[in-house]
Design brief:
The chain is mostly beta strands. The protein contains no helices and eleven strands.
Length: about 120
């Protein structure tokens, strides 16, 4: 059974930084690209970034490039999302997902975590 468990969310001040983690089990982790998505109340789920199975390739949402960086540690079956200079608009539930390619669409990912809440105070 595949499980993805996000952690690291919480309340951060505007302009601050946060690192989210996603621990995976039940799959050959290095064979999967890992994506990050987010969803704010009343909005559609939005692509944040993704990283290839080996970690060499990354893709970012244009609006977030430079502020949000995915990384991974395949020895720990964990993917990370480093977020810097957070504005209040970055508040959302952040999800990690596992898929076979560096897709930007949610439907391209097969497995999903339950999300971790990020709140940004102004």
């Amino acid at each position: 059974q595949v499980q993805l468990v996000e952690s690291g969310g919480g309340l951060v001040q505007a302009g601050g930084s946060l690192r989210l983690s996603c621990a995976a089990s039940g799959l050959t982790f290095s064979s999967y690209a890992m994506g990050w998505f987010r969803q704010a109340p009343g909005k559609d789920r939005e692509f944040v970034g993704t990283i290839s199975g080996g970690g060499a390739l990354k893709s970012y949402a244009d609006s977030l490039k430079g502020r949000c960086t995915p990384s991974r540690d395949n020895a720990k079956n964990t993917v990370y999302l480093q977020m810097n200079s957070l504005p209040p608009d970055d508040a959302a539930v952040y999800y990690c997902a596992a898929g076979r390619g560096l897709g930007r669409r949610a439907q391209e990912y097969h497995y999903w975590g339950r999300g971790t809440q990020v709140a940004v105070s102004s």
